[in-house]
């Protein structure tokens, strides 16, 4: 048995060691999907150098994951909903390129990318036989890039975003045009949510796999210097979702638009920085009265990071994120238990921002502070040189102490949500094999009642094979 196969069997065995409870939220699912997407980005790049006109490449990616979650209801005296969850996610991809003729002044390179997804999930609830879900096989990505310099046209199912991806970032069916000229980058996109995608509003009847939203966006970025870039964007979201069965007594439509300004680059001492301010406007409905109300909300993300060029490659980061809240909202995503009076000030977005492993809240009615560090402690070791350790500390506060956050257990009128420590150990064992251990521990604050203030614990073991 080869060394790589021994390691594979060793870490597959680790998936079945823990016995706690797990209840995955949509924000945790999104974080896991974003981590998977990041590891697959290289498969989309046009990095083939050849004199041939037509080129093909293909490959595969398999991820085994075991997740353990303890005290999902913040109450250690009661039994949790789930015992464990494990999954097997397979992605197969193919890409093709149409290259320019050799020795030609024509430099345009067109490409096509196709990826299939097949996901098995097993959940073991307490005192039951458990659940099983097979998602696939289905089309993950399928898009063409037409190189029409200075324009680039992307058509099909692919990942689209504006700004830092907070207001909107997701895989959708759509089209994006990018224009590059000197120090300017302009892009416009039109996208539709995927078929059978869950609605963000879980109070609408039939919300599971019944979302139908369209997105229209434009973005402009200007590079002031080699180290400074300013950008702005506008995004329109339109909700065409229908209740199933039809609910004639209530209106669930949520239409919104976002205007964002941002900057990124380097400060003195080679410190990286980013900053983005988002204003949301639109219309939402009050559940009981069906009154239409204006939305006026804000989002903000600020951060710096420093990569210290010494042995061990330590990197330090500081970040602040904010999403405004509404004092009379108990639920930050739904129409029911949502806004009940006056203007809706809750920041509801359709993108992603990391907010921790255990609590993993949405950026709604919340102030988030993060301090983080990573290092490669055994950089000079032949076998462990790609072993990386990371730690993040989060502190959470409510914007409106009377309002709710994404975790419904934080229902006490207090601004102190709590704090969290996250640890990650990742090891790129070889070019084909990667192992990751993630642990999060959330300590509830005053926003949780005395009967629901026990710590949450999150544990994830992941093994990825690439071929």
Tell me the β content: over 45%
Dominant shape: globular
**Oligomeric state, counting identical vs distinct chains:** single chain
Count of alpha/pi helices: 2
- End-to-end separation in angstroms reads 19 Å
Radius of gyration: 23 Å
The whole-number mean of residue pLDDT values reads: 90
- The string of secondary-structure elements, in order, is HHEEEEEEEEEEEEEEEEEE
Structure classification: mainly beta
What's the total number of strands? Answer: 18
Q: Regions with pLDDT < 50 over 5+ consecutive residues?
A: 1-23
Helix content: under 10%
Main beta-sheet strand count, sense and barrel state: 18 strands, antiparallel, barrel
Features:
467 residues; mainly beta; 6% helix; globular; disordered N terminus
